[in-house]
Amino acid sequence: MSVSPAAKKKKDQAANKKIIKLDATGAYYKDLNRKIRALAQEGARKFEINNVYGQRYLGTNLWGVEDREKISIRVYGTPGSDMGAFMDGPTLEVFGNVQDATGNTMNCGRIIVHGSAGDVLGYGMRGGEIFIRGNVGYRVGIHMKEYKDKIPTIVVGGTMQDFFGEYMAGGRIIVLNKFFDDNPPLRLSYFIGTGMHGGSIFVRGDVEAHQIGAEVGISEPTDKEWKEIEKYVAKYCTIFGLEKKQVKLLKREKFWRLSAKSKRPYGTMYAY
Amino acid sequence: MLTSLLPEFTVDRNEDRCIQCRVCERQCSFDVYTHDDDHDVMIHREENCVACQRCAVLCPTNALTIRNNDYTYKPNANWTREHIQDLKKQAETGGVLLTGMGCDKPHKNYWDHILINASQVTNPSIDPLREPMELRTFLGRKPDRLKMEKGKLQKIEYPGVELTTPIMFGAMSYGAISYNSFASLARAAYEYGTFFNTGEGGWPKELRKYGKATIVQCASGRFGIDLDYFNDASVVEIKIGQGAKPGIGGHLPGEKVSEHISQTRMIPQGSDAISPAPHHDIYSIEDLQMLIHALKEATDYRMPVSVKISAVHNAPAIASGMVRAGADIIVVDGIRGGTGAAPKILRDNVGIPIELALAAVDTRLRNEGIRNWASLVVSGGIRNSGDVFKAIALGADAVYIGTPALMALGCTVCQKCYTGKCAWGITTQDPYLTKRVNPEIGTRSLTNLLRAWSHEIMELLGCGGINAIESVRGNRLQLRGIGLEQWELDVLGIRGAGQ
Ligand code: SF4
Ligand code: SF4
Fold this sequence. Notes:
By secondary structure, chain A is an alpha/beta fold. Chain A is built from 3 helices and 11 strands; from the N terminus they run H-E-H-E-E-E-E-E-E-E-E-E-H-E. Chain A has an 11-stranded mixed beta sheet with strand order 1-2-3-4-5-6-7-8-9-11-10. Chain B is α/β, with parallel strands linked by helices. Chain B is 29% helix and 16% strand. Chain B has helices at 23-27, 54-58, 81-93, 179-192, 227-231, 259-265, 285-298, 315-324, 344-349, 354-367, 385-394, 403-408, 431-434, 439-463, 486-492; strands at residues 9-13, 33-36, 41-44, 64-68, 98-99, 114-116, 137-139, 148-149, 152-153, 161-163, 167-169, 196-197, 214-218, 235-239, 250-252, 273-275, 305-310, 329-333, 342-343, 375-379, 398-401, 479-481, 495-496. The chains are: A alpha/beta, B alpha/beta. One iron/sulfur cluster is lined by residues 11, 27-28, 30, 32, 49-55, 66, 423 of chain B.
């Protein structure tokens, strides 16, 4: 059955306007995700899920859904681990905290968290954006990577923990270290960027040599990078309803860029 | 060149036969030969020779013989030549010794201590040339019991895959091996009705048409992974470990990361492709369960999820956890499993032989009543169809072969894969060398190998009066041990020959 482009457009517009509300109380994650999948396949684009309580893998099971980058899901409650794992296009916005492994190996799309995130956020992330209003746990951004202009980005409003950006191979992470809470930067965590061989971490606050991996160099952000930082912080403000002009209060000299000293950190480890 | 090392091999050129065609010079990728134009003779730098035999095989007049150098240090049972030379290399470089291929140490090979039964008189043997023989193999979770409704068998609710023979090509990534080798494996598996495994280096788009014959890996480096990668395949495999280097990750050196490889892995050209030692989202069985189900979600529960570990001391308990975590297929890779590059000290000392691990895992899962929850695939040291048969009788559903497949493509097991100079064009990305594997011929050699082994397995079945591989699975009564201690017989769950 063929649909005329005009009819399709009309259908899309209707679907876009309509917000599908789901109640996740007591729902098994598999059933919940399959329901979202089925509705998305029928054309639904906007979801609001209430009473989310530990259900995992939100946003994962949407492969093959047409225009899945237009899907947006507002999540109220506390979703389970691996939210947005392998996600490829949709937007997830969580009004609460998220658990571990959020955005695991994510390829494309956007995750917004109006709260804090657990451990292993954005592991192996390859594209898309993650904005965390609050703090993040341990092992965040491990082995993020990039390819040409596909550069994944994580913005963290609060603080980070140890093993941040380990084995990082690409991408960018910006850590504001509680700037918008009017807090002075806290001391950062340890083992930052161990094994790093690509990408950049921009942090507000001082970093001591003993806090970073041997493969990491500390420098100042370049002009171009500073523009990027400002751009992402402006986005952060828009998303979380903060006044955009606050971006101007960010002091460039307070920011450090952590990046790999070499694309080949282990090149000399071997005999012949 | 380092002076304190003796050449390992000698190049003997029969000058009466040599016609100065300089084929050897062009074929050797290890810089052994140069031509001395002034004197019109070939010069040998024997210290570079790795005994890959490329030159000897291609020499049109058979003028070349590559043999062990018969120099000797003072013979010493403790300090062998290998130990002395390794030590000197390390004193000179301060580096970790790398190697390629599987462990070459004489750890006891249990396949050689297991014998197969045949029928005589009381149970007629079967001739596979005149009677049907079934090698078809199904991988995936099996139900606890079959359900019948109105006299009809109900559909099995778990996703599974079908193989025409219980032999698959094990994980070898594009990057570790050349494109032509990778494509040959994909095509051969497709044509023969079995599977190849992409390894962890991504899956080029133009080979997605072999998806029905493809197992894709999700390893700690997460290279080249997106939802299409999973969904275009038939099985997704989580790689935890590999027999050649249990417990460590991998470093594909930047110089091997060419344009096409960088595109396939989705990392910048020339940057090291580093796989961390563990998956940093898996620190426990519960975490493994989380990733298994993430992959099931990502593929809408359409395909089995496999988990691969290396054979380590407590493999049975880990396997039990893997099955309970929801793995539909578990893969155990033994100490003799191959690799493109691994620290020699790990390859030769870490892990256990697959024969023992396989028997122990199968026994454990049976005792726990969960053997049908997952299929068991083993790899690492399978050399011929007899080994395949024995593996299945010990409890495996199927095997992966890696080294034998590369041998079908030309490999002579010189163990220099990690140098990226493979003279047979297999474990290299040098365009001058990769042309040496022709995908048409490679595909044919690989399907020949599968056909030959499959037929031999039918013969082995037939001689035992059995007409389906299914009847051999875990049928350890078909096996007897020879030259084994009681504890070994106990682990293998077989009786001694004559018992
Ligand atoms: S081709 Fe191989 S066997 Fe021949 S000289 Fe070179 S390394 Fe040695
Ligand atoms: S693949 Fe090449 S380098 Fe590796 S063992 Fe075989 S012949 Fe040698």
